Amino acid sequence: MEEKITSETNINVANRQPAVNAMWKDMKEPPRYPVSTSWELLAPNINTTTLKGLLCEKDYTDDWPLGRIQDKVFQVAYFWICILDYVDSDPQLTYKYNVQNCIENVHLDCSNVSAFVRKIKNLKEKVQKKKQKELLYNSVLEVTKNEELGIECKKQGITEKWLLNPEEINVGFVSRKLIFDLRHYKRRNNITDKTCRLWIKHICKLESIPHLGRLWLNIDRMFNKKNKMKLEERDNFLNGEYQPPLAPKEVDPNIELHCRECCKQAQVNKITYYIGKVVNEANKITNLKKEKYEAQFQVYNLNKEQRTLSQKLDKCQQKLGSLSMRNVNKRIRRRSEKIWKLMKENKKIKDQKQH
Fold first, then answer.
1. What is the pLDDT of residue 258?
2. Which top-rank group of organisms is this from (predicted)?
3. How far is it, in rounded angstroms, from Cα 328 to Cα 247?
4. What torsion do the CA atoms of 182, 183, 186, 192 make, to the nearest 10 degrees?
C-alpha cells in the first residue's frame, strides 16, 4: 500500500508527465463526464495540458461549464498533491504565483498560499508514513461564491432579470470587458444566441439585430487576441471601446433584382468567353496534331532515304577496301606485262607480213 501511494504522488520529471495517470491507467473504460465526486471519475479530463493551463494561464477556465469548475475533485488533497509535484518538476513555476493562479481558476478560497502549500506537503508525508490513503480524498479548500454577473455588468446596471428578458437600456460606455462578461455569462448559463443578439442590439443601440455568425466571430477573435497579449497590455485592451460588426445594409428589391440579372449576364459572358477560348485552344491543338503527323511522315521518309544511302555507302566501302596499294601495284604490273606481250605479238605479225 505504501509503494502504491508513493507512486501515485510522484512525477516523471523526464517526461514532465504527472504520475496522476497511474491512478486510473488500469481502468478498462474511461468514464463519461458527469459532475463527479471522486478523482477516478474525473481522471480522464485531467492531463498535463490541463494542469499547466490551470497553473500558468489567467482565465483558463473561462470557457468551462459551471458544473466542471464546481467539481469536487478540485477540492480534494490528492489533486493539490499532483499540482505541487508538477510545480516542483518545473523550475519555471512557483508556488506564490502559479498555485495562486490555479486556485483562482477553479474558484476556490485560499487566503494564505504558503500555509496551504505546507499543509498539503504535510498531508502527503502523513499519507506515506501512516498508509492512510483515505486522507487523499479529504476536502482541503472551500468553493468561493461564483458571481454570475461580472463587475462591468453591475457597473452599467445590467441585472440577471434584464439578461433573461432584454429590452432598451441606457449604457454609457460599452467596453470590451463588458462584452467578455456577457460572453462569460452566456457560456455558463446556456443562454440562446437569439437572446445574446438582443443584448448587443440594446447595449450598442443598433438599429437592427446583428448577424449571429459575424457577431460571435467578432467576439471570439477579440477574446483570442486578449489571451495572446501580455498582462500589462490587457488592461488597455479590455477598457477600450467595443465596436460591433456592421450589419449588412438593406437593398432595394428592384436594385437587388437588377444586380442579380447583371451578375447572371456577367456569368454568361464569362462562360461564353471561356468557351470561345477553349474552342480556339482546341483548334490550335488540332493544327499542332496535323503538323506533328506531317513531321512524323517526313521523318519516316528521311529514315528510309538514310537506310538507302547507308546501303550504298557499305558497297562503296567494300569497293574501297579492295583498292589497297598492294592491289594497285599488282594491277599496274599485270597491265604493263599485257602491253609488252601485245607489242611483241604485234611486232611478230608485222615481220611475217614483210617476208
1. 79
2. Eukaryota
3. 109
4. 100
Eight-state DSSP code of residue 11: E
Cell numbers placing 100: 495562486
**Comparing C-alpha atoms, which of 106, 102, 88 is closest to residue 16?**
88
Burial (CB count <10 Å: 0-12, 13-18, 19+), residue 76: buried
Chain segment 74-127, per-residue pLDDT in tens: 878 888 888 888 888 888 888 888 888 888 888 787 778 888 888 888 888 888
Q: Which three cell numbers stand for residue 170?
A: 441606457
Q: Report phi then psi at 350, rounded to 5.
A: -65, -40
Q: Which is nearest to 123 in space by CA: 105, 111, 135?
A: 135
| Residue whose cell numbers read 599485257 | 338
Name the residue with cell 497579449.
Answer: 229
**Whole-angstrom Cα distance, residue 332 to residue 335?**
5
Give me the mean pLDDT over the 281-300 stretch.
Answer: 93
Is this model's pTM higher than 0.85 or not? no
199, 171 in Cβ contact below 8 A? no
User: Could you write out the DSSP letters of every residue in 49-103?
Assistant: HHHHHHHH-TTTTTTS-HHHHT-GGGGBHHHHHHHHHHHHH-TT--IIIIIHHHH
* Residue 294 CA: distances (Å) to CA of 105, 265, 282, 298, 302: 81, 43, 19, 6, 12
pLDDT in tens, 137-148: 777 776 555 556
